[in-house]
């Protein structure tokens, strides 16, 4: 798996777990991992203007477009299309990992994940996830801490 190789390049040994029944949504991933929904570190790709950005957010929150736009210095923020996601990361939506992308894109991580020592992250497919210490995820992804997530309405 490309994510295992990318982790090894960053000095990490991750234990990817495959769930044939799927981990495409945060709720699916939390159920399979047996963890709180807030401990799912979902990797979502957005476009801010014409620039892709990956946001790592807790599974029980959504990304606020206004806050994301502000963090990226302005420009209209929107969810990336499936094609834009694949072009920016090399992975399909629903399994996008936090690192090991096809292009060098900015990575942001929401402060609400700080409540967890360990989180679960996508491993590049909609059926694979792995646990990782939050500090290791931040280091491996090169993420910058931001405040962009809000509870769903």
Write a compact overview of the structure shown:
The chain is of the alpha/beta class and 153 residues long. The protein has one domain: YbaK protein.
Molecular structure report:
This protein is an alpha/beta fold. It has a single domain, classed as YbaK protein (Alpha-Beta Complex), CATH 3.90.960.10. It is built from 5 helices and 10 strands; from the N terminus they run H-E-H-E-E-E-H-E-H-E-E-E-H-E-E. The strands form 2 sheets. Strands 1, 2, 3, 5, 6, 7, 8 and 9 form an 8-stranded mixed β-sheet that branches. The chain has a two-stranded antiparallel sheet with strand order 4-10. The longest helix is centred in the first third of the chain and has 8 residues. The termini are far apart.
Main β-sheet description? 8 strands, mixed
Number of helices: 5
> Which class best fits the helix and strand makeup?
alpha/beta
CATH class assignment: Alpha Beta
- Structural shape: globular
Rg measurement, Å: 14 Å
Distance between the termini: 36 Å
Q: Per CATH, what is the topology?
A: YbaK protein
Number of domains: 1
Reconstruct the topology from this structure.
Blueprint: H1 2-9, E1 17-18, H2 26-33, E2 40-48, E3 51-58, E4 62-63, H3 65-71, E5 77-79, H4 82-89, E6 107-110, E7 118-122, E8 128-133, H5 134-141, E9 144-146, E10 149-150
What keywords describe this structure?
153 residues; alpha/beta; YbaK protein; 8-stranded mixed beta sheet; two-stranded antiparallel sheet; 25% helix
């Amino acid at each position: 798996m490309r994510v295992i190789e990318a982790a090894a390049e960053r000095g990490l040994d991750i234990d990817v777990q495959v769930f044939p029944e799927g981990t495409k949504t945060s709720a699916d991933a939390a159920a399979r991992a047996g963890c709180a929904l807030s401990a799912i570190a979902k990797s979502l790709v957005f476009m801010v203007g014409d620039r892709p950005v990956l946001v790592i957010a807790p599974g029980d929150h959504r990304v606020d477009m206004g806050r994301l736009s502000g963090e990226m210095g302005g420009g209209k923020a929107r969810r990336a299309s499936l094609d834009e996601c694949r072009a920016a990361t090399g992975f399909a939506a629903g399994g996008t990992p936090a690192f090991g992308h096809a292009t060098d894109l900015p990575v942001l991580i929401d402060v609400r994940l700080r409540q967890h020592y360990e989180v679960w992250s996508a491993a590049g497919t909609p059926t694979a996830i792995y646990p990782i210490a939050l500090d290791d995820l931040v280091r491996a992804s090169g993420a910058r801490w931001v405040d962009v997530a809000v509870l769903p309405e």
